[in-house]
Design goal:
The protein is an alpha/beta fold. Helices cover 44% and strands 19% of the residues. The longest helix has 32 residues.
């Protein structure tokens, strides 16, 4: 089934390649004629506009996508916005005399709570400079309101909507579909909380999964409500009542409750003009993020060559070579070794945003992190996720820093096998046969039934993998194996919970991790630069990669045009993953 879908999409993609290559050539010529590094001329009384209604990555290019206004099914016309770039812009704008304030445009941010917390903290710091932060939107999602509540003034269109009803988590289950298709999933795991396999063997959440899921969303919700309470002056019990009664969905009630103010855009625009002290007939100067990052930096450049390197590890851990939205152990190790051997790099901050993946790849990267910290300090900074394989990486560092809303832990391993014999025979009319030189020569060669002995072999290997994972975690956290196992078992924790049980050292964001890296490498403020690795790909590089990767193009086309394609590709990826899996519930949707 997966191969059929893949080859069908490949045929469609092939028909489009000539046109796409032509576009790439045109873009290349255009890029050669105009340098994206040219300095942007910033005007007086400017307002930094942060449009956060786009997918967020840890590190993204400063360049704009010239095709963003032309939707197409083969490559993404929506460029990602980089968290590191946002934080950098706010730090620069804080001391930039030409920037008078920030206009926060956030309706439906495609980001996690930990990333939004980083931005929120940066906006709090920005406000302390005496400059303003104003937010306006036609509607606010739960996440959007959490971020926007940090503003001095928060406005909503009178006909808009505020989604404020607490946090929920949702999983998708495939067991009934598998039963209908006569596909038999076989799972091998350690830990009752290791729930990543549940979508294939259950129709709903297990009691253990419900317990851990409710625990971590309550923890996140508590952090979110605490910060909203502090910003808006509304008690947490009152916020709870508002959420339970859905009162805030009515804009007029939301205003009366003190959650926001109602305004049309022209009225909000007038407020911005007053804030920057220009006349009603004058035009506002709005500066978008990409332009501002090409303006002259008001912060003097640090003399000398000393660096703290931020190494970004973002996405699912897939083993060997990574791609868009994934971490390849070969790619990661290559970058880490360069930084380890670079004498100008005095410390490394490992920025992790990963739900895990291949246990083999995780172990390879963990080993290299241990070798790197023998040479220089290595600090782990957790973003939205650093769970399972993501935690495997972090546990090798000298210090682990997480946001209170980070999702981490999930220390456990599982394996999964799909028996497709009856599906092929009864649904497709396809049968299989084979001959072998030895009793188990055919073991794991095709998606068929396993004997009890073969199942025991896999389970024993998973058990051994779990023992290795927990032993290394216990050594890294300097705690007994028994204590580590009592908080492992595949259980997911928030950063705040993980700090209390010893899985995390410090609570904070990337700035906290950088400060710790400087402290451990005995660098003072003004003595070092911060450099991000690997370098964010330009739009042209991303487009060229898309054109030469049929798989990436197939995925984008399918997701845009076939509603069921996401599930098919998820199952295909499940089959291709290398080794056993150290992964959290990867189909989780947190809202």
């Amino acid at each position: 089934m997966w191969q059929f879908v893949k080859y069908t999409l490949a045929t469609i993609v092939g028909m489009f390649l000539f046109l796409l290559v032509s576009i790439i050539l045109l873009v290349g010529i255009g890029s050669a004629m105009s340098s994206s590094d040219s300095e942007y001329e910033l005007k007086e009384n400017s307002i930094l506009k942060l449009d956060l209604n786009r997918p967020m990555a840890e590190n993204a290019s400063n360049e704009d996508n010239p095709f963003s206004a032309f939707p197409n099914p083969f490559f993404s016309s929506t460029e990602k916005i980089g968290l590191i770039q946002i934080i950098s812009a706010l730090e620069r704008a804080r001391v930039d005399d030409k920037i008078k304030g920030v206009y926060l445009d956030v309706s439906f941010p495609i980001a996690g709570y930990a990333q939004l917390s980083e931005i929120r903290d940066a906006l709090e710091k920005f406000k302390k400079s005496g400059k303003f932060v104003y937010a306006y939107s036609n509607s606010y999602s739960e996440k959007a309101y959490y971020l926007a509540s940090v503003s001095n003034q928060l406005y909503l269109n009178p006909g808009g909507l505020l989604d404020f009803n607490g946090i929920s988590v949702q999983y998708m289950f495939y067991k009934k579909a598998f039963d209908k298709l006569e596909i038999e999933p076989m799972v091998f795991r350690v830990g009752t909380y290791k729930s990543a396999v549940e979508p294939f063997i259950r129709e709903d959440m297990s009691p253990e999964n419900k317990e851990q899921s409710l625990s971590f969303i309550r923890s996140i919700n508590q952090v979110v409500f605490n910060k909203i309470s502090q910003s808006k002056g509304i008690s947490i019990p009152r916020l709870d009542r508002i959420a339970d009664s859905l009162q805030a969905m009515n804009p007029n009630k939301a205003e009366k409750l003190g959650m926001l103010k109602l305004s049309y855009w022209d009225q909000f625009e007038s407020l911005l003009k007053k804030a920057v002290k220009i006349g009603e007939k004058d035009k506002l100067t709005m500066v978008k993020l990409s332009d501002y990052l090409h303006a002259k930096n008001p912060i003097p450049e640090v003399e000398g060559s000393k660096k703290i390197a931020i190494l970004v590890a973002e996405g699912e851990i897939v083993g060997m070579r990574g791609g868009e939205g994934s971490i390849g152990s070969d790619d990661f190790v290559k970058e880490l070794r360069k930084l380890r051997d670079n004498s100008s790099v005095k410390a490394i901050v490992l920025r992790i945003d990963s739900p895990g993946g291949s246990s083999l790849a995780s172990d390879i990267m963990w080993r290299e992190i241990l070798l790197a910290k023998k040479v220089k300090p290595v600090i782990a900074s957790m973003s939205n996720y650093a769970a399972s394989g993501g935690y495997y990486m972090a546990m090798g560092a000298d210090v682990i820093v997480a946001q209170p809303t980070t999702i981490t832990g999930s220390i456990g391993i599982f394996a999964q096998w799909l028996n497709l014999d009856n599906f092929f025979k009864n649904k497709l009319g396809i049968t299989q046969d084979h001959v072998s030189t030895h009793e188990h020569s055919h073991f794991l060669n095709s998606a068929g039934q396993l004997t009890d002995f073969e199942k025991s072999i896999i389970q024993n290997m998973v058990n051994e993998g779990y023992e290795s994972f927990t032993s290394k975690a216990a050594a890294g956290r300097k705690m007994s194996l028994g204590k580590l196992k009592s908080i492992a078992g595949g259980r997911v924790w928030t950063g705040e919970q993980a700090k209390k049980i010893g899985l995390v050292d410090e609570l904070g964001g990337l700035d906290k991790a950088i400060a710790l890296a400087a402290q451990k490498s005995k660098l003072k403020d003004g003595e070092y630069k911060v450099a991000v690795y690997p370098k964010a790909k330009s739009f042209f590089d991303t487009l060229l990669e898309s054109a030469t990767s049929s798989e990436a193009m197939e995925m984008r086309w399918a997701k845009s045009n076939l509603p069921w394609a996401k599930s098919v590709f998820e199952l295909d990826r499940l089959k291709k993953r290398e080794g056993f899996l150290a992964m959290m519930p990867y189909m989780m949707e947190l809202e």
